[in-house]
Design goal:
Length: 413
Amino acid sequence: MGDPLPTRVKITERPPSGINTEVAAKRDKHWVRGKSLPTPTTASSGGLCLRHKRRKPRFARAVDKGSRYQHSAQPERSLPGAGTPHPAPILPPKKENTMQKALLAAAIAAISLTAQAKDDLQYSKETAATLKDGSKIAYFLESKKGAGEKNNAVCEDGLFYNDHYLAVFDGATDKSGKTYDGKKGGRVSRDIIQDIFQNLPPNTDKEEILKRINDKYQDFYTANKDIDFAKEPVNRPTATLIWYNLDKNELVAIGDSKARIDGKAYNDEEKLVDTLNSALRVKVIDELKLSDEQIRENDLGRYYILPLLQRQAEFQNNPEAPAAFQFWAIDGFPIPHDKLRVWQFDKAPEVIELSSDGYEIYPPEASVASYEKTLREQLAADPMRIKHPSTKGISKDNYSFDDRAVLIYQRKK
């Protein structure tokens, strides 16, 4: 009859101490050839019995009990001639921590927003560039606080240009008091729009551009779930945007950034809520007989209208608001198609000027120098913006009433 059949033993990632590996290897070799070696009664030190089927190896018992070896369960290897294999241990599935996953997703979204737009613009000096077709670009960009890296980092105006698009955008002054990674809402808006234009394919349709901007906003809102941006519009980062598509000869405007094209002004009308609030601020200042220095130190007119400025967010991108008070802005929420301001041009213009409302008055010439000269004259004549009513003047520690950006394109002749 030959030797009794050996007991089946599970072979694991590594044999436990006590198994005579040299003997086991020789035995395997002879079994392949159809032979067998005499079966040892016990291993040298581990107490492992190969002859008696009723007794499990020590290592197998340890695995059954869920020992430290359980994590390294291996596919079963059976010794020839054995009976039913001992089943491999099955690890219980790990429980997913949905809270950790949500926090990780929010952190990734926040990081992507923080690191998004590459700001390679020059500040506080006239900058020139040439497009591939030979057309000329000139621009100027500066914070209301003046020149310097620190002030550049909080400038809420921005601009973009390449061979396909010209754009100026203006982050709205925050009225909620909230910041996000040290940024106010106006800067958040500015960075979102800049990031979209930096990655925009040529000749993208205006609806697709707005969709991409709104999608980026929704990523931001997802990363800040503690705020209900839908029900609390005053907390929404907001911006105005105007751009010219050089491939389509199309001008699109949302909000009060403006354009002058071949000498003709576009989108320079003031919205009614601004007209009303500006007039009320000036009325308060007149009634209190405040001097320019008093206003600069503590603008009580602005203080008086601030609740109204916060309240006007209810009219923003809200088709249900009274029509006279409605206005439209970039804030991540839908804008009806018929509320977009669009101008189509039959031929490519010679000169395109795009500017934020940091420049309130068009200058005599289409040049950065002319824009800056006109602004200096305006600030000298009406620094608190009483004669030309506005919702704010030059406040303490600022040298202008708002950030400003101007982009001038001159087509190659």
